[in-house]
Write a structure and sequence with these properties.
39% helix; single chain; globular; 309 residues; Alkaline Phosphatase, subunit A; alpha/beta
């Protein structure tokens, strides 16, 4: 194994920690995530410093708490001069590449190519950035360029406009996108093609940020058929609010509980069906990425070192 093994980071968006077969989930099937856990380490107690997208991602990139890096919500941006793990690995000879969702800054329109210098400043030498599901309605990227070229961009945006009109808990239909053209398909395929064409001598740090299973629950139609609402686990009982909760957190929790009462067991079962389908779809792409690395002879120098823990 090389002195500096390749580093591969695969990040789904809003996947529950227990939504993997290897974590004991009774329904969802994740053979490739299970493989990673079996060959490496499965952390049963791991916590995010923030439940919100941008600050959590900024903490992951910098190793800092929110009050240190200054990112508290999904607005503004991480400082461009932030010290990141990309800078640290570049210093010892790595080549760095970011594919998929970053969300270190607000995606509020325009084209993501305008922000490449910002991601370069954070330490990413190559950038193939996409937006997450909701931001794709209003922000362009290499992904929407591709969809525009193949003629399905309006299919995506019209579908998301319809989903926004009826609301998440009523928008329970699979994606109408052509086969192989969802956000996760684009991200996974871009990663595979990048690995297949990687010809540099430096060890590789590759980050792959998927858009799913973040809502809306728009699993590809063929994947949605793999789960049956009748076979979903029963709903968990409601949790009573604790007295120690700060007033703002308690108010938010009460608002969420009010909305949850409108979600019947039947609706919840359908949501889970589509959510698990999205997870399994991403898991399949993880397998394709691992296979691509294996075919290039890169996987042996990417496996975790147990004795380094």
């Amino acid at each position: 194994m090389a002195d500096h093994p390749n580093i591969l980071i695969l990040m789904p968006d809003e996947q529950r920690a227990d939504s993997m077969s290897c974590a004991g989930h009774p329904v969802v099937k994740t053979p490739h995530m299970d493989r990673l856990a079996a060959e490496g380490v499965l952390f049963s107690n791991a916590y995010t410093p923030s439940p919100v997208c941008m600050p959590a991602r900024s903490s992951f990139l910098t190793g800092l708490y929110c009050h240190n890096h200054g990112q508290w919500g999904n607005y503004g941006k991480l400082p461009a001069d932030a010290d990141t793990y990309c800078h640290r690995v570049k210093a010892v000879g790595y080549h760095t590449c970011h594919i998929g969702k970053s969300h270190y800054y607000a995606h509020s329109g325009g084209h993501l190519d305008e922000h490449k210098p910002f991601l370069n400043a954070l330490g990413w030498q190559e950038v193939y950035e996409t937006t997450g599901p909701q931001a794709t309605r209003r922000t362009d990227s290499i992904m929407t360029d591709h969809w525009r070229e193949v003629g399905c961009l309006e299919t995506f945006r019209e579908d998301y406009a319809r989903r926004a009109e009826v609301g998440h808990t009523a928008a329970l239909w699979p994606s109408p996108m052509p086969e192989g053209e969802t956000i996760d398909d684009f991200v996974g395929r871009t990663a595979v093609e990048y690995i297949e064409g990687y010809d540099r001598d430096e060890p590789l740090l590759l980050f792959v940020g998927f858009g799913g299973p973040h809502p809306p629950w728009d699993a590809p139609a063929d994947w949605a058929k793999r789960y049956d609402p009748a076979h979903m686990p029963p709903n968990l009982p409601p949790i009573e609010l604790s007295e120690w909760l700060p007033p703002a957190a308690a108010a938010h929790a009460r608002k969420q509980k009010k909305g949850e009462r409108q979600v019947t067991p039947e609706i919840n079962a359908k949501i889970r069906t589509l959510y698990y389908a999205k997870i399994s779809h991403i898991d399949w792409w993880m397998g394709q990425i691992l296979d691509a690395m294996d075919a290039r002879g890169m996987l042996e120098d990417t496996r975790p070192r147990r004795n380094a823990l």
